[in-house]
Amino acid sequence: MNTFVTFTALLLVGLASTAPVNDDILHIDNELFPELFVIYTGENDITNLVVPVNSLNFEDEPDDEEAFASATAGIYIFFVEENKGLFVLQNKTATKLLENGNDISAASDDNKAVFFGASDGIYTFNAEKKTAEKYGTLTDNIINIAVANATNEIFILTADHIVYKVTEDGTNKEEVTEVKDAQQIVLDSSNNLYFVDNKKQVYVRLYEDGTVKKIKDLPAHPSSVKLLRPPIVIDDSVPVIAGKKAFLAYSNGTAEFAEIILDTKPTAYSVEPSLLVYAAHDKKIYEYNILNIVVLGLLQEGLEELSEVKSHFSGQTSEIQNMATKSMKTIRAN
Ligand SMILES: *[C@@H]1O[C@H](CO)[C@@H](O)[C@H](O)[C@H]1NC(C)=O
Ligand SMILES: *[C@@H]1O[C@H](CO)[C@@H](O)[C@H](O)[C@H]1NC(C)=O
Ligand SMILES: *[C@@H]1O[C@H](CO)[C@@H](O)[C@H](O)[C@H]1NC(C)=O
Questions:
Q1: If you measure from the C-alpha of residue 147 to the centroid of ligand 1, how many angstroms do you get, rounded to a whole number?
Q2: Using CA positions, which residue lies closest to atom 4 of ligand 3?
Q3: How many structural domains does the chain have?
Q4: pTM, whole model, 2 decimals?
Q5: pLDDT in tens, the chain (334 residues)
Q6: Which CATH number is 62's domain given?
Q7: From which residue to which does the signal peptide run (predicted)?
Q8: Residue nearest to atom 4 of ligand 2 (CA)
Q9: Which domain holds residue 180?
Q10: DSSP letter string, 19-88
């Protein structure tokens, strides 16, 4: 099992253990959304959720598990609520940043920048003032934005389904002509660009030479397809939800079933922080702190299932601790 699957599974297997589970396949159902994990309740569905894994959120490297356990205090969570706008959530307080913001992106590195794609161009986050400020001069209607790792490039997908590479501090854009009819875009850690076309097929455009490959091994006619931003601990791949099934799509053009079936579907996800998983479901945002649950056993009262999570994975606690340290070091190293 790869890292993404392992760490998502760590949480979900345990929580699902009261329900009948078919071999190794995880079924995500309503029981995985207990009220105790709610950090925000909206009026409408949450359609987008991003937790930047950069110095905005993880400035100091937690050198022990206790530091990681408190890492969610003060963390900035960005989301879009249908018909309401783009917000930042910190310490359970939501602040509206943009009426017309559609998407959020940050590179997983040691800067603090967060970018927003809006119906009239690109904005950046001002953390001191808790506001969005216009970035560059573009005025495109942007539906997806993806900030590249370790370069100063930003990829945008516009409402007319064209992908551009934005350079020169937001004043210049060049069409990425190899990408056609894109409906969604996501970058992996090597800046390969994955996109879904108007026939719900998934492709990858390699950063190195612009080659476009269709991803094999995915359902031929899925009812829906969603690309997720990858957890920072995985390389050269992104999670894909096709119909009810979760897959990992690799930059070599293959995909693998992640052994997860979504009987109920979150309306948005953020799995980038890896040991923290965020999901939006039925107008609410949920936070799952895997280290807290599994290693430290900080059991929240009234949630009996959590004691099973802990005992289920008690043999793997050192592996999880190592991963917590490693994922933070990865960020600091960039
Ligand atoms: C959020 O909570 C943390 C920890 O309690 C605190 O240090 C920080 O000042 C709070 N931030 C805001 C904006 O309230
Ligand atoms: C970002 O890119 C650098 C340079 O290519 C690479 O060493 C690093 O691993 C990348 N970061 C992540 C989070 O993958
Ligand atoms: C594609 O990459 C994945 C992940 O690195 C690997 O497991 C798989 O064997 C590769 N497939 C091919 C055909 O190279």
A1: 27
A2: 250
A3: 1
A4: 0.84
A5: 333 444 444 444 433 333 334 456 777 888 888 888 899 999 999 999 999 888 788 765 555 555 555 667 788 999 999 999 999 999 999 999 999 999 999 987 778 899 999 999 999 999 999 999 999 999 999 999 999 988 889 999 999 999 999 999 999 999 999 999 999 999 999 999 999 999 999 999 999 999 999 999 999 999 999 999 998 778 899 999 999 999 999 999 999 998 889 999 999 999 887 778 899 999 999 998 766 665 555 444 445 555 544 554 455 555 555 555 554 444 444 3
A6: 2.120.10.30
A7: 1-18
A8: 150
A9: 3-333
A10: S---TT-EEE-GGG--GGGEEEE-SS-EEEEE---STTT--SPP-SHHHHHTTTTT--EEEEETTTEEEE
